Amino acid sequence: AQSVSQHNHHVILSEAASLELGCNYSYGGTVNLFWYVQYPGQHLQLLLKYFSGDPLVKGIKGFEAEFIKSKFSFNLRKPSVQWSDTAEYFCAVNEKTGRRALTFGSGTRLQVQP
Amino acid sequence: NAGVTQTPKFRVLKTGQSMTLLCAQDMNHEYMYWYRQDPGMGLRLIHYSVGEGTTAKGEVPDGYNVSRLKKQNFLLGLESAAPSQTSVYFCASSPLRTGENTEAFFGQGTRLTVV
């Protein structure tokens, strides 16, 4: 069975600081990888996704993530965070074939202080 | 373009009451899912469907039933609500095709409180 680990549960940063959120997954087959963001009181929105090709993917709002297959990792990065980035971030994976349902990590709450 | 629409958005139930949550998608997606979101636990899959007339259990199916009578609708039922089912419920859908652009689209969520 798939599992996703997000080791940072709560991160507090000041504006302009750099961000890196860790995500590791456990699965023997090939997977698609996603980062979703949930702003307070809202639904999940796709931040970025990796299906194949260049392991460095760029998403919306200046976010990027790097897929490192040997480490089963898909860490999210942003060079300079803004107050508006305050949200909860979820890493998720699904199988390229078979069951398509996403398996989510437990989430990382990011708080950016002005 | 509505995407994925959930009804209702908020609900308070008494223990033992029943209710049905409706999810509707207008993207002609084959796959539909119900998740629950609890603090510190991310989203967990309750049930899912790979097409009209089919359903399957996810990781946390106990206490819930689902039906997919029409391709665009996926209903989640609670026959006898319990306080442990207090949660935020999200519906999602995704297309059948493989490869690129198979991401899931989420509804706005239903906040359910069981007292």
Please characterize this protein's 3D structure.
- The complex is a heterodimer of chains A (114) and B (115).
- With 114 residues, chain A is an all-beta fold.
- Helix content of chain A is 0%, strand content 53%.
- Chain A is built from no helices and twelve strands.
- Chain A has strands at residues 3-5, 10-14, 19-21, 24-26, 31-38, 44-50, 56-58, 64-68, 73-78, 87-95, 103-104, 108-113.
- In chain A, strands 2, 5, 6, 10, 11 and 12 form a six-stranded mixed sheet that branches. In chain A, strands 3-9-8-7 form a four-stranded antiparallel sheet, with no helix packed on it.
- Chain A is globular and about 45 Å long.
- Chain B is globular and about 40 Å long.
- The mean pLDDT of chain B is 93.
- In chain B, the strands form two sheets. In chain B, strands 2, 4, 5, 6, 9, 10 and 11 form a seven-stranded mixed sheet that branches. In chain B, strands 1-3-8-7 form a four-stranded antiparallel sheet, with no helix packed on it.
- Helix content of chain B is 0%, strand content 49%.
- Chain B is an all-beta fold and 115 residues long.
- The interface between A and B is medium-sized, with 27 and 25 residues.
Compute the separation of the termini of chain B in Å: 36 Å
Largest sheet properties of chain A: 6 strands, mixed
The largest β sheet of chain B comes out as:
7 strands, mixed
Overall mean pLDDT of chain B stands at 93
The number of helical segments of chain B is 0
Strand % of chain B is over 45%
Spatial shape of chain B: globular
**What is the multimeric organization of the chains shown?**
heterodimer
The number of strands of chain B is 11
Structural class of chain B: mainly beta
What would the principal axes of the Cα set say about the shape of chain A? globular
**What level of helicity do the residues of chain A show?**
under 10%
Q: Which runs of chain A of at least 5 residues are low in confidence (pLDDT < 50)? A: none
